[in-house]
Amino acid sequence: MTPLHRIFASPSRYFQGPGAIDLLGQLLVSYGPAPVLLMDSSVRELIGDRVSLVCAAAGVEPIVLITSGEVTYAAIDRLLVDCFENRPTVVVGLGGGKVLDSAKALSQRLGVPIITVPTIASNDSPTSSAIAMYDQDHFLVAVDMMQANPVAVLVDTQLLAAAPVHFLLSGIGDAIAKVYEAQGCARGQGLTPLGTRPLLIAGVIAQACYDTLRADAIQAIQDCVHGSVSADFERVVEAVVLMSGLAFENGGLSLAHSLTRGLMRVDGARDLLHGYQVAWGALVQMQAEGRPVDEVADLAKFLTSLGLPVSSADLQLVHPWNEQHATIARHTMSSPHMGNLRVAMREDSIVQAIEQLDHLCLNLETF
């Protein structure tokens, strides 16, 4: 495949709404006699009995595997040994990002389809073909790509509304950056994760994702605090899980996501959820691109109203910040997405953008 070609990547089917998980049994009937369900112990305690009932009602007898720890190549090898004799016909991942990435990696190794069932809305992993692989110390070592996206995504908004609100905040932070990253790729010579130039539709979806979050995120967060599934909550979940995934796979990633490689190397910031890091990264990218200061300040004020980080202090970096900024910039440059900007980035230009953002955030009240 050459960059002259363009590819539209998406899951084959996407189901969202209260009780969507109850569709799983009937859905599995179409995917052969030996499904594997992969979850962790907390998810098994949360929904294991319910999943068993809906599978039994459909006449499906799945193999249940419990995973824990990092998504490493060694961990996937162990899962392969656990399920190989049963000749799985489909893998179902139920849980958060680590479980879903493990399920994706397992399905890729087995050569069978993958169905994702997220139990939190912390990012867009359920819809994408990307697999984040780590080492035992939780440092990213690779982003592998499946041959195809999930054949089905089941998003039960009752489950997501019952989850702790900081997961939804992470999903919002991850999703809100996609419009800036898609724009950066399109305006420069950027490539999507599939190695092709962005599609026009990616920019449209990314903008719709951003507009939805600006309009509905504050109310959706309040609804999540109270465990309520409202129309606002449904729209925000769609933006976080579906639109965000379509935007980045078809539009590309850029500096906002590249910065997470650096943030994982510094104390404080490394402990934040992925979307918290990316939200801050979007502001740094805007600053690095030379966007109008009023535009950067507007997003910073919105992120502050949600409780997402906008400065080095919010990232829990230890003052003085100079050495940590340099560390962040150095590791950020290793990201394959760094070429997806119209403006060429260097370590010193990244440090400068971070420092300029800190200065702006000290004076937000003047905007």
Instruction: Write down the domain tally.
Output: 2
Radius of gyration: 20 Å
State the separation between the terminal residues, measured CA to CA. Answer: 47 Å
Report mean pLDDT, rounded to a whole number: 95
How are the elements arranged and paired?
Elements lengths: L13 E4 L6 H5 L6 E5 L1 H17 L5 E4 L6 H11 L6 E6 L1 H14 L3 E5 L11 E5 L5 E6 L6 E5 H6 L2 H12 L1 H10 L12 H26 L5 H21 L3 H9 L10 H16 L3 H14 L15 H11 L14 H16 L5
Helix pairs in contact: 3-4, 6-8, 6-9, 6-11, 7-8, 7-9, 8-9, 10-11, 10-13, 11-12, 11-14, 13-14
Q: Would you write up a description of this structure?
A:
- By secondary structure, the chain is of the alpha/beta class.
- The chain has helices at 24-28, 41-57, 73-83, 97-110, 157-162, 165-176, 178-187, 200-225, 231-251, 255-263, 274-289, 293-306, 322-332, 347-362; strands at 14-17, 35-39, 63-66, 90-95, 114-118, 130-134, 140-145, 152-156.
- A hairpin with a 5-residue loop joins strand 6 (130-134) and strand 7 (140-145).
- It is globular and about 60 Å long.
- It starts with 13 loop residues before the first strand and ends in a 5-residue tail after the last helix.
Task: Summarize it.
By secondary structure, the protein is α/β, with parallel strands linked by helices. The chain is 51% helix and 11% strand.
